[in-house]
Structure formats: structure tokens, C-alpha cells
Write a structure and sequence with these properties.
- The chain is 77% helix and 0% strand.
- It contains 21 helices and no strands.
- The radius of gyration is 23 Å and the shape is globular.
């Protein structure tokens, strides 16, 4: 019964997603239409697109299960941090300035923004390569997280089949309708995610294993008092690292920054900020709350890890199958929650694939063939979307060790490369081409260097466990080194800066730029 009901729900969902792609096909005929939806997305579409791209099945299958098990209730701070720092503060500081400057520069992608802001074709090519090399493997990890859960519901179906369905849906929506189709599907998927996470929290908390929120907290305390310590107890440092990486990392990720490019107007920014923050709070807190009760559903092994074949990744699937398979009502809820995870993954994949395909089809192709016609460029980006979906699917199914290792470091490297040049380039005129280059290089140099040192001393597995720490260090270095180098290198022409910023300098720019520097 579980499989039949779930399959029917999935078929309805698939039909809706393909229908949206067909409906949006006409609006994706130009490059701006395909990549940005003509910069016409309103606050609800943009905010939901941001939120659904932020949270994929990885948060439910991997992060919530693992951090909920190890940290307990304190892991809720990761979800709160994502909402306050990764959404509210990010939107307040970045959305308006990003939209204004990218319109002035006529930039549709992050590499194109770097190229036009810093007058550097080389920086554009470098940024495009970083996006391709590290975001496509990251997409593969999203496939794998989703395949784990669906395989638990459909035990006779391999993970590869589930991942192939996700690949088909993602490719169809992007190929047919571009950004507008993904924005509309993200809105639908966002509604499903909200309904799904609320249902998940209610069902899990009312299960006999938990016995309500108060009783559940009491039972966790009996297992280990640290599981109800809001500071994370001895896991405080791990908690802080994950809050910082997953909250500030999105400030430099091209698939997230891209959402600011496409918003309709300045008036839409404020409501979109509130909507995105509320969405993130519901999804993030809900996911980590469910994960924090893992000990009440899953026995611990002798080493303290979950006694499940899939380890941490199997905690949330085990909870859901245990709680939602006893009657038809709960089975329907399970189907909705599966759509929640499918929706989260599809929206994240769409954002990753669109960023990767545009990096090659727009940024690199324009360097190789500067006179290419727009219609040919749009066609190339469409087909590249299919290519990148296939590549990420193959990487996920083949389980190539090199690709798997890239997944561990991809978020930190990409954020480390881009956060410094993007933030300073957006706000401060005195940011130079040399400063931007040092910031962009620091991400891969810092992470690569730390991995090499840690591997030489303690082995590669030890280095992988420190991937979040390396990512944070890379971001800090990028943010610090860009203004330092900019102060001692030649500024860009004033006419160009006037075009980027307008004719007036802001108070922030005047305070950052010393009068002695010329």
C-alpha cells in the first residue's frame, strides 16, 4: 500500500512539473529570459526559489540526522543561523546592491559580474571553471541523499532509478522553461516543503517513542544530558563551525546570489527578505528538530554511532518509515514528505545546474566565440543543462572516489573563492582587480594547502572531517585579503567605477577608502 500511494502521488507531481516547464517555454527564448526570467520574478517566487535552493535532501538525510544525533537539541541553532544569517542578513546586505549593480553592468552570472566589475576576462574564465569543477560534484551529493530515502520506501528499486527520475525532472524543467520555470516550480515545491515539514514534526513528536515535546526532551536527557544542552555542550565548536559555514557560505555561492539578479524591482526586496527568512526558519528548525530525536528511534552501536546499515544517512529514513506506514492517512503523509525531499533536491539541483551551464555556455563560450548570436547561445545553455544533469547523475552512480572527495570540499572552496571579491566589489570602489584575484585564488589555495598539510600529518580521512573548518578559514582569508591587496594596488578607472556604482560614493565607501590612497 505504501508504495502504491506514494507512486500515485509522485506521478501527479511529475505531471505538474513537466506542465510548468511547457507553460514557461515561450518566456525562455532570450538569454535574459532563460537565465533570469527577464528579471520579472516577484517577491514570493524569488524568496521561495532562494529558500528551496538553500535546503536540499542533504539537510534532511545527512545534516539533520548526523548533527541531531551528535549534538541533539542544540543543532536547532544551525537552522536558526541559516534563517537569520543566511537569509535575513544576506538579503538585507546583498539583494538590493546586487540587483542594481548587475543591471548597470548587464551581468547575468557571477563570472560575468566579476569580468565586468573588475575588467578581467581571465577572472571570468577562472570563476567559470571553479563553478563547473566544484558545483557539479556537489549536485551529485544531492542525488545520493535523495536516493537513500526513496530506496528505503521502495526496497526493490535501486538508488540509480530514483536518481534517474530526479535527473529527468530537473532537466525537463530547465530545458523547457529556464529560470522562470524553475522559479514557479520552486514556489510549488516550497509550499510542499512547508506542508511536509510541519506534518513530519507533528507526527514524529506525537509518536509513542517521543511522547510529546516535553517527554521527548526528558527521554533525551536520560540518554545523555548533552542532547538537551542548547549550547551543544562538548560539541559547541562543531555547532559553531556548521552554523558559520552553512549560513555565511551562501553569501558567496553563485546559485544563491543568482536569485538577487532576477528579482523584479526594489520594492520586492523587502517582502522577499521576510518571506525567505520565514521559509528558512520553518524548514531549518523543523529538519533539525526531527533529527535531534534520532536516539529515541534508533539504538546506538558500541562506538556511539547509530546502529543502522546506512549510518547517519539512514536515521531520518528510519524514523519516517517507522512513523508513517501503519495506516492510509499516515502513508499519504509519507508521500507528501517524500515530495518535500524530492522538491528540496530538485530546486537545489536546478540552481546548481543553471549556474554550471551558464558558466560554460555564457561565460566561457563568449570568450571563445565573442560574436556568437544570442539564439545560439540560448540553445547551447539549454543543452549544457542536460549535459550537466547527466554528468552529476553519473558521478553519483559511479561513486568515483575523486568526485566523492570533491563533494566534501566543494561548498567551502566555492564560497571561499567568491565571497571576498563579491562583497568588496559590490560595496567598495577601491576594490581592485589584483585584490579580486587574490580573494578568488585564496579559496582553492587555502583549502588545498590545509588538506595537503592535514593529509601528510594524519591521513586524508582526517582531512575530510575538517572540511567545514577549512571552508570557514578560506572564507575569512578571502574577505580579509581582498581589501588589503586593494589598498596597495592600482585602482580601476574612475569612469568605470562611476558606471558600476553611479556617480556618488556611499558613506561606507568613503569610510573604507583612506584619503591618502590614490
Amino acid at each position: 500500500m505504501t508504495q502504491i500511494v506514494t507512486l500515485l502521488i509522485l506521478l501527479l507531481y511529475i505531471g505538474a512539473m513537466v506542465g510548468i516547464g511547457l507553460y514557461c517555454r515561450r518566456s525562455a527564448g532570450t538569454l535574459s529570459g532563460f537565465l533570469l526570467g527577464g528579471r520579472s520574478a516577484g517577491p514570493w517566487l524569488t524568496a521561495f526559489s532562494y529558500g528551496t535552493s538553500y535546503f536540499s535532501a542533504v539537510i534532511f538525510i545527512g545534516y539533520a540526522g548526523m548533527h541531531g544525533w551528535n549534538i541533539g537539541i542544540g543543532s536547532l541553532w544551525i537552522g536558526i543561523g541559516n534563517a537569520v544569517l543566511g537569509c535575513l542578513l544576506a538579503w538585507l546586505l546583498l539583494a538590493g546592491p546586487t540587483r542594481r549593480m548587475t543591471q548597470r553592468l548587464d551581468a547575468s552570472t557571477m563570472p560575468e559580474f566579476f569580468s565586468k566589475r573588475f575588467q578581467s576576462t581571465g577572472l571570468k574564465v577562472y570563476a567559470a571553471v571553479i563553478i563547473f569543477v566544484f558545483l557539479v560534484p556537489y549536485a551529485a551529493s544531492v542525488y545520493k541523499g535523495l536516493g537513500t530515502l526513496f530506496s528505503a520506501v521502495f526496497p526493490g528499486v535501486g538508488e540509480e532509478v530514483i536518481m534517474l527520475i530526479v535527473a529527468f525532472l530537473t532537466a525537463a524543467a530547465l530545458f523547457l522553461g529556464g529560470y522562470k520555470a524553475t522559479a514557479i516550480t520552486d514556489f510549488v515545491q516550497g509550499l510542499i516543503m512547508i506542508v511536509g515539514i510541519i506534518a513530519m514534526v507533528i507526527v514524529v513528536i506525537t509518536r509513542p517513542e517521543v511522547g510529546g515535546l516535553t517527554e521527548g526532551l526528558h527521554r533525551l536527557t536520560e540518554i545523555d544530558p548533552q542532547l538537551t544542552d542548547l549550547t551543544g555542550g562538548s560539541n559547541f565548536s562543531a555547532l559553531a563551525v556548521n552554523i558559520a559555514l552553512t549560513s555565511f557560505g551562501v553569501w558567496g555561492l553563485p546559485q544563491m546570489i543568482h536569485k538577487y539578479y532576477a528579482i523584479r524591482d526594489e520594492k520586492s526586496v523587502k517582502p522577499a527578505t521576510m518571506i525567505a527568512t520565514g521559509f528558512a526558519l520553518i524548514i531549518g528548525v523543523g529538519a533539525y528538530l526531527v533529527g535531534s530525536f534520532g536516539h529515541l528511534f534508533v539504538p546506538a552501536a558500541a562506538d556511539g554511532s547509530p546502529a543502522l546499515a546506512g549510518g547517519y544517512d539512514a536515521i531520518i529514513p528510519h524514523i519516517l518509515i517507522s512513523a508513517l506506514s501503519s495506516n492510509i492517512f499516515l502513508v499519504i503523509l509519507l508521500g507528501i514528505i517524500l515530495l518535500l525531499l524530492l522538491s528540496a533536491s530538485m530546486s537545489t539541483l536546478s540552481a546548481l545546474v543553471l549556474s554550471s551551464s551558464s558558466a560554460i555556455g555564457v561565460d566561457l563560450l563568449k570568450v571563445i566565440r565573442p560574436n556568437i548570436q544570442e539564439k545560439h547561445q540560448v540553445r547551447t545553455v539549454r543543452w549544457l543543462c542536460l549535459v550537466f544533469v547527466v554528468l552529476s547523475y553519473l558521478f553519483a552512480t559511479m561513486n568515483i572516489s575523486f568526485i566523492v572527495n570533491l563533494m566534501s570540499f566543494s561548498w567551502g572552496i566555492v564560497a571561499g573563492c567568491f565571497i571576498g571579491p563579491f562583497l568588496w566589489g559590490l560595496y567598495v570602489r577601491r576594490t581592485t582587480r589584483a585584490g579580486a584575484w587574490t580573494g578568488a585564488l585564496s579559496g582553492i589555495v587555502v583549502v588545498g594547502g590545509l588538506v595537503a598539510i592535514q593529509t601528510a600529518l594524519y591521513g586524508f580521512q582526517a582531512a575530510k572531517t575538517l572540511a567545514p573548518h577549512f571552508g570557514i578559514i578560506a572564507m575569512i582569508v578571502s574577505v580579509v585579503i581582498v581589501p588589503v591587496v586593494s589598498l596597495v594596488t592600482r585602482p580601476l578607472p574612475e569612469e568605470h567605477l562611476a558606471h558600476c556604482f553611479g556617480t556618488k560614493k556611499t558613506a561606507m565607501e568613503k569610510s573604507v577608502q583612506p584619503s591618502s590612497v590614490r
